[in-house]
Structure formats: structure tokens, C-alpha cells
Amino acid sequence: DLWNKNFISKMKKSKISVQKLSQKEIFNNACAIFQGDGVPMDKKAGCSLFKMAADKGYVPAMLNYAIILENGDGIPVNKKEAARYYKMGADKGDLDCMYHYALSLQDGDGIPVDGKEAARYYKMGIEKGHNICMYNYAVMNSKGEGIPQNLEESAKYFKMAGENGVPAGYA
Q1: Cα separations (Å) of 95 from 40, 61, 83, 112?
Q2: Residues 6+ apart with CB under 8 A from 107
Q3: How far apart are CA 46 and CA 75, in angstroms?
Q4: pLDDT above 90 for 169
């Protein structure tokens, strides 16, 4: 708590001091400030810090900031920008970012629909064991959404998803 209060004090005095903090320090304080954990809640300031940590390359901040942008929690909804941060995290190997970016591509949520690219990101997620990526990839194959219909491939991934706890008819 004391560390977070000192951080807020530093932040008010000089933006430069915040910029000198590590990505993780910025992220940890973003979490505390955004949630009001030991300090007064300030969602807007927390969002700014999540963005700062994400822009410095901290992958967990990319996911958090993208979710905040997608849902408009403390800042206006911006699905295009959310997709950009999901992609940043996905390209750095974050499993949840892979899933969310693929979903954005599949649904055209803030970005143009691109089934082929959605399938590619779902496959990246599958390679890392993301169960819902398995299911969504199976659906794309069963319907031929953005990729050629492949019922054999669809059955394979529906089975894998089921074996990994995704209930039948998940969508």
C-alpha cells in the first residue's frame, strides 16, 4: 500500500519519474489504481498506466488494456484499438490475446472480417493449448467461415475441445 501511495505521489509530481519505472512496476500500479486496491480507485489513471506499460512492451498490460478498450471500463469503447493491442500481445505469444484477436478477426469487431487470419491465430492458440480456440476453429471448419469447409478437420478439433473440457454446443 505504501509503495502504491508513493507511486501516486511521484506520478503527480513528474511524468518523467513514471516513465523511468519498469514495465512491471507500471503494470502493478495500474492494477492497484484501476481496482482501488490500497489506494483511491481511479479507472482513468489506471487505464493510462496500462497503456503506458503496454506501449513499453509489457504483454499482460496489452491484454488488460485491450479488454478495457473493448468494454469501455473507465474509458470510451474503442474496438479498433482493442484489436490492435490484442494483436500486439498475440504476436508476442500471449495465449489470451491470440484468442481475442482471432475472435475480433472472425467477427469483424473493430477491424475487417478476415477468416483466414482468424483461423491462423486460432491455430496459434491451439498450439499453445487454448481450448476455446480449438472449438472456434472447429466451428470455422464446419461452416467454411473464411476458410474452406473441412468436416474432417472440424470433427478433429471439436473432439479435442470436448476432451479438454469445452462442452458440446459451447457457442
Answers
A1: 32, 14, 14, 22
A2: 113
A3: 10
A4: no
